[in-house]
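Homework help thread (please don't just give me the answer)

Our assignment gives two proteins as sequence + structure token strings and asks us to describe the second one. The first is just a warm-up. Here they are:
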Amino acid sequence: MKIFRIPAGVALLLLAVAQAQGHDTGFGHSRRTLLFLAKPEEFLLEYRIVLNADEALVEMTRMDRDGDGRVSAEEKDRYFAERARELARGWDVTTAEGERLHPVFARVELGHSLTQTYRFSVQTGDRAIFFVDTNFSHKPGQVAILAGPGVQAEPQTPATLAHAERISVVVTRKIK
């Protein structure tokens, strides 16, 4: 019987590759940034999603409704308007009194590094709103919560923003 000896370095490399293959580094994680801004009678939300190359390819395929291998401006506009409605359905936005608010989609901007920035407005003169995002409960990942001038935005409940699924944010206008 022949005995094969594998050098320790090669064995460790094989184990590392096996471990890496079992870990989903793309579709399994979300990366999003929530930026809250305020005007006198409304809050503004910029909701940025960062895709990896595989996710962007899947989206391009979904955009091509007629299957001709090209994405027309109309197909792109329709896709992102539908995607914005889908995102808004995954949010629960309320006032401190519990009144449900309805974010209105303004536009989307596609940026470098496969980013999609959706812009929404929420009409209310209230000092604070509560924002709950459940869009990525199946796909936890990094979340950044940012606030513009005159606004404070903080997690409502303790959350690990490095690996968040559902995120609850209290957004408050600062009183001068």
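The one we have to describe:
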Amino acid sequence: MKRSQYYSTLAWCLLLFAFSLPLSKSAGNVLLFLIYPMVVAGAIFAKDIRESVMSNIKQPVTLAFILMFAVSFVGIFFSEKYTDGMQTANKFLELLAIYLMLSVLISTLQDKANQYRSAESLLTAFLIGLMALNVIGVMTYLGIVGEKKYVLPLSPLHVHHIWFSNINALGLYAAAAFLLYSRRDLSRGVNLFLYSSLTLAVLCVLLSTSRTAWFGILLTSMVMAFLVSKSRKVFFFIAGAAAIISVVAYLFVPFVHERIHMIGSDISNYSAGDTVTSLGGRFLMWKAALRMFWSNPLIGVGTGDYVPTMAAYVNSGQFPEFLLDFNQPHNMYLFALATNGLPGLIALLYVFYRILKFTLPIVQTGEKNPGREKERLFAFLATATAVHFMISGLTDSFFSIQILRYTFAFIIGVCVRQSVTTPHGPLHDEIIP
């Protein structure tokens, strides 16, 4: 294969991977199966590719993902269930591999000027895939696809409604980043697509009825508004508008009112001893996870032993049996503490620290450096993604869910690269459209 064909094939595989992320786990895995060997083969047989790949391995979040995987891998040896431990550790290895695949290949295939366009193309492909999923979702809700209509929660193509809503949250942030920082450079048709994508994402998040996504988006929006607002008056205006919209939705949208009202009723039922509710189950899982952590704060119960330990608690009568339906405590911080102790939590937090360390200074440059609009686009999206995961991770373990784990690594790989914060990058002809 000629060098130009090799680069072009890799570039199109990356675009297809971005497009498939919201639509098909199997397609994404097949594309990864094709991309990884191609990169390895290129690095082995072509000196310039090898040198370019090796020079770009040191990315801003590489060490953090390695640390997360290393802690999880060591925790396997403290587990009774080695198979479960290896499966969990493999999830963190996937984060590292996908992050490096995007951050290294974008830098390898392009010079810096064209890296921005390539990264934008990948994000656009992701938004097109998400738009396709959302169109299917709306058609499903209206009964055009499937035999039933007006069924909530909305979960098209058998994508769980919480996963569906949170991947839409990431798409919402991506569309917002384009509109904030690239709107003037884009054609009218592309702008129309972005506004349509944004509107459809908001609609699908609402129809998903996921409170995790609702509160995650609301709080993340407040954080991002605070970071990018030119004045505090603008921030308070945005915060006030968001509060008004939230109140109106609560008062006049029946299923929103019902879902929010359930929070109070779940807490009341839990206090009365009825734990078989959404929040009641979470409270019990959090309690069990903390018990696992306190049993061994330094190493936890082991990477693969959350489920066996929960089973032991249930068999001893400490917790109800329905908790065995879940393989994680619906809180990524407590899951890290329970399985890998303090090192697990530190490794998790270090990932977010590294992301925000590189993105926050760029997000906050504002009008002081108008020439960094492209960098701000990527920094805005990466920051919003990290903040959303940090907030929503309080009620779910997103890194245990493939569609969200892959999308997180994809966005961070595209947006948090050394070339975004430094002026130099390897030179190649433009490849990705």
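TA reply:
I won't write it for you, but here's a hint about the kind of observation we're looking for: The CA atoms of residues 288 and 310 lie 7 Å apart.
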